[in-house]
Amino acid sequence: MIDIQEKTTEVVESTDLMPINGTDYIEMYVGNAKQAAHFYKSAFGFQSLAYAGLETGLRDRESYVVVQDKIRIVLTSPLQSNTRIGEQLDKHGDGVKVIALWVEDATESYHSAMSRGAKSYMEPVTEEDNHGKVVRSGIYTYGETVHIFVERKDYNGVFLPGYKKWDTPNYNPDSVGLKFVDHMVGNVELGMMNEWVKFYEDVMGFKQILSFDDKDISTDYTALMSKVMSNGNGRIKFPINEPADGKKKSQIEEYLDFYEGAGVQHIAVATDNIIETVTALRDRGVEFLRVPQTYYDTLLDRVGDIDEDLAPLRELGILVDRDDEGYLLQIFTKTVMPRPTMFFEIIQRKGAQSFGKGNFKALFEAIEREQELRGTL
Ligand code: FE2
Q1: Of 138, 165, 192, which residue sits at a domain end?
Q2: Measured in angstroms, how far is the CA atom of residue 130 from the centroid of ligand 1?
Q3: pLDDT tens sequence across 271-311
Q4: Is residue 170 one of the residues assigned to a domain?
Q5: Cα separation of 1 and 9, whole Å?
Q6: Element (H or E) spanning 274, and its range?
């Protein structure tokens, strides 16, 4: 991933159908943007970055932007009834609306995607202020989720035109070491996975790099199928899940029921030191899924030698998996929205480029224990 500060100078050479430099920002529609921003600061170690709302001339919505290293999250709430944002909140609850992608030419990206069958969300728009100009355009992906293409090579403002710096001099909790978005997972309806795989292949020029079926991923109750799509330079990875038949309601079905459609299931964020990061998150009240202690009794037999001591991994509940290229450490938060929909993954890669397949079973059983508590299994 590339540092946001370096974005104006770094140009990626690529013959991609759809060259993308990285994730630009993630926008969530939430019930109370001001309080959500506080949560991402206090619990997840984000810093105040930018604000747009009544004070900047908006009348219908307000947005707070928080940042941690290369990760920017925009939290948006409506300020009146009968808005598109409000309608979507009513239907889906809090969740991700926009996965914004940083491109060199947002006009070209838009027309190129449209020529290959994309559905338009927003025609290219140039926005300007004293700090330069930004061009944005957008297309729909699964559900009501959209990709916005952001061209910011002629911009050096704090976030986007229309936003002012959000200063909170008295409260800026330390970072917990989250660095960048590693991958973002979408849950789609039964039978729709291959359609969205084809969308990412045909419209976005992505390639499928991995797939899992219900033989890889099944417990007594949950079964799911998943295909992982990656853009040309590997900076954008979108696994797409669909439910498969299980004995009871799978976690994917639970998501689709509560979100009332397809949407973003989890955002995986990378750290260079998962033990420090998860310790800090836990101390700030972030709740994680736990696997049984027996997971650790046989861990080293499964994954071989690792650099980390077993004791803190066991204490924190961090999972480990190995593939041909190395290993990875990962852990999943409980859902962070009122509805049991979206959650975060914290991941540290030590060579491995996969997604923790060896942990799926233990993990899904942990999710099912949560579903049982919710009465949704
Ligand atoms: Fe993941």
Answers
A1: 165
A2: 39
A3: 999 999 999 999 999 999 988 888 998 899 989 999 999 99
A4: no
A5: 14
A6: helix 274-283
Residue 331 CA, ligand 1 centroid: distance in Å: 9
pLDDT tens column, 95-126: 999 999 999 999 999 999 999 999 999 999 99
CB 223 within 8 A of CB 242: no
Structure tokens at 157: 């403002």
Q: How far is the CA of 336 from the centre of ligand 1 (A)?
A: 15
Burial, 279: exposed, middle or buried (Cβ in 10 Å; 0-12, 13-18, 19+)? middle
Residues 132 and 237 in one domain: no
Domain with 116, as residue range(s), is 4-165
172 belongs to a structural domain: no
Mode of pairing for the β-strands spanning 47-52 and 61-68 = antiparallel
Q: Measuring CA to CA, which residue among 257, 372, 271, 249 is closest to residue 318?
A: 271
- Alpha-carbon separation of residue 86 from 11, 23, 36, 90 (angstroms): 37, 25, 16, 6
Looking at the structure, tell me whether residues 236 and 262 fall in a common domain: yes
Q: State which of 165, 194, 216 marks the end of a domain.
A: 165
Yes or no: say if 139 and 120 are a contact pair by the CB < 8 Å rule: yes
d(CA 210, ligand 1 centre) in Å: 13
Report the number of distinct structural domains present in the chain. 2
What spacing in Å lies between the alpha carbon of 80 and ligand 1's midpoint?
35
How much distance in Å is there from the Cα of 28 to the middle of ligand 1? 18
